[in-house]
Design brief:
Blueprint (H helix, E strand, L loop, with lengths): L1 E6 L4 E6 L4 E5 L6 E5 L3 H11 L1 H6 L2 H22 L16 E4 L3 H13 L6 E4 L16 E5 L12 H11 L1 E8 L10 E2 L1 H4 L8 E2 L2 E2 L28 E2 L6
Parallel strand pairs: 5-6, 7-8
Antiparallel strand pairs: 1-2, 3-4, 9-12, 10-11
Length: 248
């Protein structure tokens, strides 16, 4: 946030930039959202991290094991093909010469640095608090990388901008024959019935507190916002009935 003020002692204008942490709160007067400055930024960041999906990802043992298996196989494949040790984006423990990791959220980048230090890998891993699309060669990476490991996957597979990020990496950060992990993905789905899911974007009532509700013919076209899919764990919904088998 830019600021300026007049120094009364020198009669000069002092200018600079300061950073503040803002959070959205419900305005009790207007009913809308308002921005409030958080006095304890460290505590705010800690709460954001603890409540984010990042922590559940770190505790997902199956997911992490699958990534480690893919990294190990990818490095073995690269060594067998190129007869040398790769410069990887991840997996220093499995033979990479150096790892360049990106985490745009500064607090998570700091945590990553502390974990790397605790595991004695500071000489093999460099963490940038940047988007991967902000990295350049040779400013950040001394040479193009031989391998890229991407975690830009969500419940919709491509919802976090994987394709443009990968395109940028291939154009600016990777060698032409670089190994990309994961190399492919399959989405599995099934049809289910659930009153709970039904009520997330519809309702059966025609009156609320004696107030009549009218629905137009276009009501079912309303998805409740731009995000038409909600990430959730289906096993937490008690009334789900499977209508089909799981299919790719």
């Amino acid at each position: 946030m830019p600021y300026s003020y007049l120094d009364e002692d020198t009669n000069e204008v002092v200018e600079g930039v300061s950073s503040v942490v803002l959070s959205s709160r419900l305005n009790p007067e207007s009913g809308g959202l308002m921005w409030v400055e958080e006095e304890d930024s460290a505590e705010t960041y800690k709460n954001v991290v603890s409540m984010s999906q990042m922590t559940s990802m770190l505790r997902d043992l199956d997911r992490n094991a699958a990534y480690e298996h893919g990294i190990r196989r990818g490095i073995e494949k690269f060594i067998a093909t190129h007869h040398r040790r790769p410069i990887a984006m991840l997996a220093a423990r499995h033979g990479a010469e150096h790892v360049y990791a990106c985490e745009m959220f500064q607090t998570m980048a700091d945590i990553a640095g502390a974990v790397i230090d605790a595991n004695g890998l500071c000489d093999k891993v460099t963490v940038f608090s940047l988007r991967s699309t902000q990295l350049t060669v040779p400013e950040h990476l001394p040479v193009r990388a031989d391998m890229m490991v991407s975690e830009l996957f969500d419940s919709l597979l491509l919802g976090e901008g994987l394709l443009p990020t990968l395109a940028h990496a291939r154009a600016h950060l990777l060698t032409p024959d670089a190994v990309v992990i994961p190399q492919h993905a399959t989405v599995f789905a099934k049809l289910v019935a659930s009153d709970t899911l039904y009520r997330m974007n519809s309702f059966d009532q025609t009156h609320i507190d004696s107030l009549a509700l009218a629905r137009s013919k276009d009501a079912w076209k309303c998805t409740g916002g731009a995000r038409v899919a909600l990430p959730l764990h289906i096993n937490t919904i008690p009334d789900v009935v499977d209508l089909t088998e799981v299919v790719p």
